[in-house]
Amino acid sequence: MATEIRMPALSPAMEEGRLARWFVAEGDAVQEGDVIAEIETDKATLEFEAVAAGRLGKILVPEGTASVKVDTPIALLMAPGDTPAPASPARRAPVAAPRATRNAAMREPGWEAGVHLAPLIVREALRDALTEEMSRDEAVIVIGEEVAAAEGPYRVTQGLLDRFGSARVIDVPVTEAAFAGLGIGAAFAGLRPVVEFMNFSFALQAMDQIVNSAAKTRYMSGGAVSCPIVFRGPNGAAGRVGAQHAQCFAAWMAHVPGLAVAYPYAASDAKGLLKAAIRSDDPVVFLENERLYGRSFDAPELGDHVVPFGQARIWREGADVTLVGYGPAVGTMLEAADALADEGVAAEVIDLRTLRPLDHATVLEGVRKTHRCVTVEEGWPQGGIGEHLAAVIMREAFDWLDAPVACVAGSDVPMPYAETLEALALPRAEDVVEAARRVSYR
Amino acid sequence: MTAREEGAPESGDVGLYRDMLLIRRFEEKAGQLYGMGLVGGFCHLYIGQEAVVTGMEAVAREGDQRITSYRGHGHMLAAGIDPGAIMAELLGRETGASRGKGGSMHMFSPEHGFWGGHGIVGAQVPIGAGIALAEKTRRTNNVTFVYFGDAAADQGQVAETYRLAALLSLPCLFVIENNSYPGPSAAPRGPQLLERARAYGIETAAVDGMDVRAVREAADVAALHVRAGKGPYAIEARTYRYRGHSMADPAKYRTREEASRVRATRDPIESLRERLLGEGAVTEEVLRAIDREVKDIVSAAADAAREAPAPEPEALHLHVTAEA
User: Fold this and answer.
1) A67 Rama sector, left if φ>0, alpha if ψ -120 to 50, beta otherwise
2) Complex prediction ipTM
3) Which of A89-103, A109-123, A266-280, B62-76 has the lowest mean pLDDT?
4) I need a labelling partner for A358 at 20 to 30 A (CA). Which of A81, A412, B67, B301 fits?
């Protein structure tokens, strides 16, 4: 009886990988625990072990194949004594059949018609922003754990050490409070540090420095001292990493006067906003998301693309309901907008892009047009950006509203580990669709 | 106009006397104004510790940087910042060093290489290391003086900063002002302060922080080490805070007699005065002139501060960001 050996997920957010090498050939006997293949992801090269004894049957995915989706059958394992059977045609070449939309490049809106678009991966957009800004201004330095020789825990700082040297690409030990303070002091003294947190949850160790030292010093000094620093790193849910590594800081950070906060969704915004953040004379909290790093978006050749803070991006026009959110929730809104279109509801989709400054005007304009609004975010509901927007809309556009604003947010719980519970804790497209129906009295 | 430019230029040890006296008289005045309700919030006085910053600043050169805690009036005066701007800030006036928005604990003067004035115990230590990082990146041989107290030395971020400073070989001089009483609680002593820095491979020295000449000597050795690119250095200056931790602290953890005894036998200003006179380095008459001059500077600062306007309401929303 043959069992399928499937492409493993070697990290929580891994969606695909390259099958670099087979260490065994068809017909070889394998023991449980034998290393049978080498798999490369964008983060690491890992060995893959057999989970049961047997003999390798048909190899379904040859070595050297790139972009093999997780869970794709890559070989057959025959129970000891079995003879290999030819693989059924249905199991051939599964590589070419990715799940719909999930990994296909998302088309970004707003580019001029006729401009050539090519896929741009978020991680590379971020790396390009860092590279270009470090080339442009030698005051820009990068500080973080594993950012230099290891090229970043998520490969965002790839190539920076080679190009700019260890004086500007600085590896630091696990000392979040101190290396945040280190960056702040360097910023006071005229450098433009980009400080990476391996996970934004670790920034809690440095919260005093971010809030008390970075955000307030311009004010406390009567304008004498500037703190041009960027704190960046993966934020929010990543894929079964549990409560202490998965939480959204957008609303927390946006609460603090003196900080600017960005949470881009699209690749071009990741680049353009990071460049703007580095050029800003104020401290910026720049939130990324592990699930978005490997996502590709169709964008033109960007060059020196700088996206100003405080300007939302309209992904879809629609006259019936305004969906407004940020970060990975933009993907959820777009999915919901597709579903709503099938029901004959035209949803407008607004990506806030930055949470401080926050583009209230675009949201209000949308609400005055559609008279209905659903906010969507992955963070917790109480004191969230959605509840803030609901208050602003009530205050500024009360007479235009045909229904109370609906807020879709992450569940009001620490992030659970179990796959089923985690999926329930994050807003899904169907939650957004249901909220849109509710505000439309449908 | 800086404090140092006022009056007759005293050089050498007489200058040290004058600088310490300016801090003493300034702090006494600040305490008075606090008692009158003119200074708000928290106010931490430097009385008794004057020899530390004065001795350290005696070896500072143009381009050096400094950062300290909430007990920072003395450091500002020693850096040459206008006493009038400091006093006006204590009173929350528009003419204050931070335009009335910072107060006693939050003053800054980049042109004097003075980076605060930090209210969170220990937070200035990694920031100071960052200022040193900027100097190293620019390949200067400037020293960043990072001052903190014995209480701050217990903060985890101080240990983290030793680690970073040693690893990155940062040009910073840590100055631990051990004023014998870590805050109002007088907690039992932890491990010896310098052993902690030594554990990270940082060179250290301990010095009598009540003796300004000894401080200057230790500072000279330390600053040369740092300027030569040999990495960080830590000095523990053993000193004594005469007043409570802040104006709100009655200092009941020690006897009045103990404070009086230190004052009578180890006062940094009195002992330098006696030595200068004994050595024939200065006359009573010159010292009296200095006393008068310092008193006048402090009175003028206080008078000007009391007459200065409060910030305009429009100032509330200014300086939050670069745009506003």
Assistant:
1) left
2) 0.94
3) A89-103
4) A412
